[in-house]
Amino acid sequence: MEPTGLVVERAARAKPTWRDLRHRWDTRYAPYAYIAPYFLLFSVFGLFPLLYTAWVSLQDRNLLDGDAATFIGVDNYVRLLTADPYFWNAMGNTLSLWLLTTVPQILFALGIAQLLNRRLRGRTFFRMGVLLPNITSVAAVTIIFAQLFGRDFGLVNWVLELFDAGRVDWQAGTASSHTAIAAMVVWRWTGYHALIFLASMQAIPSSVYEAARLDGANSWQQFWRITVPMLRPQIIFSTVIATAGNMRLLAEPLLFNPGTAASTGGSDRQFQTAALYLYEQGFGKFDFGYASAIAWLLLIATVLITGLSYLAARRIRTD
Amino acid sequence: MTSVLERPAPAATPPRGRRKRAVRLPGPWTYAALIAVLAGSAFPVYWSLVVSSQTPDKVDSVPPVLVPGGHLFDNLARVFDESDFALAMWNSVVVSGTITVSVVFFSTLAGFAFAKLRFRGRSALMLLVVATQAVPTELGVIPLYMMMSDFGWAGEIHAVIVPGLVTAFGVFFMRQYFERAVPDELLEAGRVDGCSSIRLYWHVVLPAARPAAAVLGLFTFMQAWNDFFWPLVVLTPENPTVQTALSTLASGYTTDYTLVLTAATIGTLPVLAVFILFGRQIVGGIMQGALKG
Questions:
Q1: In a domain, B11, yes or no
Q2: Using alpha carbons only, how large is chain A's radius of gyration in Å?
Q3: Could you tell me which residues are beta bridge partners of residue A287?
Q4: Where would you find the membrane-spanning parts of this chain (chain A) (predicted)?
Q5: What backbone torsions phi and psi does residue A71 show, to the nearest 5 degrees?
Q6: Contact check, Cβ <8 Å, B141/A147
Q7: Which residue of A has its CA nearest to B137?
Q8: A130 in Cβ contact with A195 (< 8 Å)
Q9: In a domain, B62, yes or no
């Protein structure tokens, strides 16, 4: 093999035909041409804007001032962190909504996956059913839920009255509005996570459960001592994905209270998230510098919270 | 040569979860619980259909009506008369269609290079693709908006299309697929016959990619159709996509929910149709852990 290869190569070097040249170019450079569109487009429209946000955040830059930008260092950050109660309010709401969405999402998804992990008739039907919410658009869902959670004619309040529980003005309070918004997010994403869990549940060998049953473990114990620990990698994945998404909620709070002051997230900013505050400052007040600083603080907060939830999810006991 | 190229080897099916599983026969309670979950999943969609087929005064009544009425077509006509919804639908079709074709094309091309071609820096570049999957690019909206204004694209649907033309996820997804599904021997045979890599891509790789490309395409279409934040920022109410038109409709002084939810229903129909036709493949894609939200 070796000598022939050398001979061929020498022959090629001696008299490179057009065909050899083309082949050499093809194997050496064509791969770069194939991956170039991705890297080009992503760098220009994905990565560059994100990095440039850092530069804009150090400026006093208002779209309405004819793009006159002045470098002001970390002033935007200082103002946000020390003199802007609305920012802290938005961060608090973000954290509250993150907790109210992420934890129920994972728990419900585990329960639904457990139900689906049986020899069901019409498996595909059930699986598609639980995924249905995930394919709907966030705008449509939020508007539908806003109607369902309406104060006067909403279905939720009507049901509450049937049970003599009294009406709730869902948008008015902090706790009630967070509950309603969390319901939308949980509704939309639980099925997706359930399917991810289901896939791994199906890979757990039944002998493990049989052994546990012989040891006298009931199904509740089997679920917490075997299923959940064995799903640890998927639970970590889902927690991280859900956290990254839920820290950036914007459409839900924006459309929950459609109207002239939508970007404040309620009359008292009771459900204004950090992403919505970014939107208000950037595209309501055109304060691009300030909005960019919010973007970076939100990014940092997201990384921190994602890291923390990763650590928390990793603590699931493995036997 | 052609005989080789015309019959690409059947794609190796990716390994599934072990067949032996914790089998528990479902009792009536399991079905009852699942049907309750399903009812909860479907209810908001059903409800939007109920409201969109009623008159406004019926919707604002206690107790609420729970079954569809007969005014769906009146409301449909009103949506198209009273708003730019036809334009919004057309824009969404163009945006989602273009993005889907482009993502599938560039992802299969780059995925092929990463999976089957040898070149310097390949693993480092692939690592970069994987890393960029985690980058929350929507936090870069401010400079992105400034760029689009500079290009004179603000308010135009190009501004929505161009940033969506490639995704890190698509490249990663196709690479994973090609590594298993396209045998190296097949490509070598093509090489021996003097095929250039672009012809290999076109005649061997792309046909073999069909099942995975379909899943990627479906998923991309749905995401592009449902995208809200960036179109909201860069488009004007005069030139909307379906999602931004919905937000405009919902933000009047008083919200006419029959009108808005009729629009929401229409706007959901395309993805619902795709889902009913290809739900099995989409579910399969998620269950293989392949599709990321």
A1: no
A2: 27
A3: A62
A4: 32-55, 95-116, 128-149, 293-313
A5: -75, 125
A6: no
A7: A46
A8: yes
A9: no
Chain B contacts of A136, Cβ < 8 Å? 44-45, 226, 268, 271
Comparing CB atoms, the residue among B142, B165, B171 nearest residue A288 is B142
Determine whether the interchain pair B137/A117 forms a contact, defined as Cβ–Cβ distance below 8 Å.
no
Q: Is the pLDDT of residue A155 over 60?
A: yes
Rounded-to-integer distance, Cα A301 and Cα B168, Å = 23
> What whole-number distance in Å separates Cα of residue B270 and Cα of residue A302?
33
Contact A75, B162 (CB under 8 A): no
Q: Give the range of the structural domain holding residue B196, as residue numbers without chain letter.
A: 76-292
Q: Structural domains in chain A?
A: 4-56 (no CATH), 85-314 (1.10.3720.10)
State yes or no: ipTM above 0.90. no
What are the structure tokens assigned to B197, written together? Answer: 């890599």
Question: Between A and B, how many CB-CB pairs are < 8 A?
Answer: 307
CA distance A62 to chain B (A): 11
Would strands A59-61 and A69-71 be described as parallel, antiparallel, or unpaired?
Answer: antiparallel
Residue of A nearest to B128 (CA): A39
- pLDDT tens digits, one per residue of B63-120: 778 888 888 899 999 999 888 899 999 999 999 999 999 999 999 999 999 999 999 9
Does the pTM surpass 0.80? The reply is yes
- Separation between Cα atoms, residue A182 and residue B50, nearest integer Å: 24
Q: What are A310's two structure tokens?
A: 């990763």
A251 touches chain B (CB under 8 A): yes
**What's the rounded Cα separation, in Å, for the pair A263 and A281?**
9
Q: Give yes or no for a cis peptide into B237 (omega within 30° of 0).
A: no
Phi, psi values for residue B46, rounded to 5°: -60, -45
Look at residue B218 and tell me if it is in a domain.
yes
For the stretch B210-255, pLDDT in tens is 999 999 999 999 999 999 999 999 999 999 999 999 999 888 767 7
How many CA atoms lie less than 13 Å away from B206 in the CB half-sphere? 12
| Amino acid at residue number B30 | T
Q: How far apart are the first and last CA of chain B?
A: 42
Number of domains in chain B: 1
Q: Find the CB nearest A144 among B26, B47, B226.
A: B47
Decide if A42 touches B, using CB distance below 8 A: yes
